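Session log. Operator J.P. requested a structure for one protein chain; no other inputs attached. Running the standard single-chain path with C-alpha cell output.
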Amino acid sequence: MTQPAEVAILDLLSKAGPGKSIGPEQAARAMDAENWHRALPRVKEAAKGMARAGTLVILRHNKAADPDRFKGVWRMRLP
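Structure written below.
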C-alpha cells in the first residue's frame, strides 16, 4: 500500500531530476504545508522502508547511509 509520504517523496524526486536529492522537510511540507513538523516522522519511516526496498537512497554527508542506523541531517535521492 502506498502511503501519502511515499507519494510526496517520489513526486518531489521525479521533479528534482537525475542525481538530485531532496530533504525530508520538503516532502513533509508537500504533505502538510501548515503542520509539516508533524509529518516529518511519517516521511522518515516511509523513506526508511523505501530505502530497504531499494526505491531510494538515504544520504548522510552525500554518501549512502544504512536506513536502520542513520541519525542527524539526511537527504534522499533515487538510486
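Operator note: The chain is about 50% helix and 15% strand.
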